[in-house]
């Protein structure tokens, strides 16, 4: 049962030394109760108190790190069921299954296609995260050969999937620096898998077909000394999988049920790439920490990555660009000036349309607290007064010889007042960003 902040405070040294980073022991206790800080931040906590507080200080879902270096991924450590309650912290890792019975040329081609799944959207890099190698051939030599190719061709973290303990051990000798996930521990082999995990300090995927069996298996493998675990409920249809993931998340967060307090993994395989993408998207939205697919077509993967990016932004803090004057192309003192807000999606949409027009232009990103044009206008964050102040702040009059600015068509109502406030001549632009190229090309004709 979770302890309250006051109950935790009674077990702390009460020195108010501030070495934990908080002004008082009570403040530290409140953060412990909220699972937002680790107990080891307190240098004076007694061993007796550590034992009593160990469970209370653990996050409801363990943070697990897979991989190493720049490509490492962190999964788990989520604190809410629903995004609007706070936010989701560690984005779902998207991976792809490759099989060891593939020809070398086909395997290298697949790895090359996976490597290309790296995109930029609204100023952020979105990409895939891992590769799962399956021992489909049941042959150790083929598995190791395929692993060597992957290690040479890709830096991504790995899932090593084999039923053979000897094959897994040989693979771990080669890839231990990547800190891969061992797939999978079952009732039949959990002692051997636990031994490999402890020897090579890797994460273990624990798999059982029912929630009851999974609970028992997790307890058994934890008793063997394994700490980093991901959970797998096996091959099921999408509705059963989402039910499992939802119940595990709920039990971990609401009931502090430790056996399900770990990240979860889902393997998706469907003959239709579009159906596979749809299923994967559902798992991203409903609590999967890792989703492994078969199809790596960019047209199917980009929507999944976009969904993930949207889900894992802070709903109370929209993606923003820095409020400033941006130069698109080789601008000069005759270049047009377009006014917009600092909401990332709005800015990058406008920027891409200006680029496609081939007309060098200035884009003024006004500070609207990350809101879109209409939202900011309705909230009185995008007003004639604020726009005029922005024009003065960034000294637009020193950048161009003309006195013309272009505002979005949806806020044409601002034009008269803005001219009075700023002294600039206001031109109302198109309502939709897609109209910007034609608008700019016809400007002044």
Structural key phrases:
445 residues; alpha/beta; 3-methyladenine DNA Glycosylase II, Chain A, domain 3; TIM Barrel; Rossmann fold; 39% helix; 17% strand; globular
Helix tally equals 16
Whole-number average pLDDT?
92
Let me know the number of strands: 17
What oligomeric state best describes the polypeptide chains here?
single chain
The CATH superfamily of the largest domain is identified as Dihydropteroate synthase-like
Could you tell me the radius of gyration in angstroms?
Answer: 27 Å
Q: Tell me the distance between the termini.
A: 73 Å
Task: Give a brief rundown of this model.
The protein has 445 residues and is an alpha/beta fold.
Detailed description of the structure:
The chain is an alpha/beta fold. It folds into three domains: 5-57, 3-methyladenine DNA Glycosylase II, Chain A, domain 3; 64-311, Dihydropteroate synthase-like (TIM Barrel, Alpha-Beta Barrel); 325-442, Rossmann fold (3-Layer(aba) Sandwich), CATH 3.40.50. It has 16 helices and 17 strands. It has helices at residues 5-9, 25-33, 47-57, 104-115, 140-153, 165-175, 190-200, 211-223, 238-254, 273-285, 298-311, 344-357, 373-378, 384-393, 415-422, 436-442, and strands at residues 64-66, 73-75, 93-99, 118-121, 124-127, 130-134, 158-161, 181-185, 203-207, 229-232, 265-267, 290-293, 325-328, 337-341, 361-366, 404-407, 425-428. The protein has an eight-stranded parallel β-sheet with strand order 10-9-8-7-6-3-12-11, covered by helices on one side. The protein has a three-stranded mixed β-sheet with strand order 13-15-14, with helices on both faces. The termini are far apart.
């Amino acid at each position: 049962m979770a302890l309250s902040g006051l109950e935790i405070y009674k077990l702390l040294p009460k020195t108010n030394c501030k070495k934990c980073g908080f002004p008082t022991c009570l403040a530290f206790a409140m953060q412990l109760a909220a699972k937002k800080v680790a107990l080891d931040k307190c240098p004076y906590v007694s061993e007796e108190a550590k034992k009593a507080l160990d469970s209370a200080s653990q996050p409801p879902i363990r943070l697990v790190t897979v991989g190493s270096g720049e490509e490492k991924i962190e999964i788990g450590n989520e604190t809410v069921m629903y995004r609007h309650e706070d936010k989701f912290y560690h984005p779902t890792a998207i991976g792809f299954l490759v099989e060891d019975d593939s020809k070398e040329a086909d395997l290298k081609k697949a790895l090359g296609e996976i490597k290309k799944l790296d995109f930029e959207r609204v100023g952020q890099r979105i990409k895939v995260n891992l590769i799962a190698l399956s021992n489909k051939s049941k042959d150790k030599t083929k598995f190791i050969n395929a692993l060597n190719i992957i290690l040479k061709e890709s830096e991504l973290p790995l899932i090593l999937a084999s039923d053979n303990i000897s094959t897994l051990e040989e693979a771990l000798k080669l890839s231990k620096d990547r800190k891969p996930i061992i797939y999978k521990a079952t009732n039949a082999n959990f002692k051997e898998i636990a031994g490999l995990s402890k020897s090579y300090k890797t994460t273990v995927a624990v798999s059982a077909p029912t929630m009851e069996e999974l609970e028992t298996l997790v307890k058994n493998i934890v008793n063997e000394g394994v700490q980093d675990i991901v959970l797998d409920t096996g091959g099921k249809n999408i509705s059963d999988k989402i039910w499992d993931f939802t119940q595990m998340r709920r039990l971990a967060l609401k009931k502090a049920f430790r056996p399900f307090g770990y990240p979860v993994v889902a393997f998706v395989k469907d003959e239709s790439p579009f159906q596979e993408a749809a299923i994967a998207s559902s798992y991203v939205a409903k609590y999967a920490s890792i989703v492994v697919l078969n199809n790596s077509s960019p047209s199917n993967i980009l929507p999944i990555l976009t969904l993930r990016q949207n889900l894992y932004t802070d709903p109370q803090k929209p993606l923003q660009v820095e409020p400033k004057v941006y130069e698109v192309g080789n601008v000069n003192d005759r270049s047009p000036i377009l006014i917009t807000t600092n909401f990332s999606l709005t800015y990058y949409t406008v920027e891409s349309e200006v680029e496609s027009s081939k007309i060098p232009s200035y884009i003024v990103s006004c500070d609207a607290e990350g809101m879109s044009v209409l939202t900011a206008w309705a909230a009185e964050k995008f007003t004639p007064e604020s726009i005029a102040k922005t024009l003065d702040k960034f000294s637009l009059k020193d950048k161009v010889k003309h006195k013309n600015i272009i505002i979005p068509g949806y806020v044409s109502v601002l034009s008269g007042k803005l001219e009075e406030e700023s002294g600039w001549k206001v031109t109302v632009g198109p309502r939709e960003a897609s109209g910007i190229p034609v608008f700019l090309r016809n400007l002044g004709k």
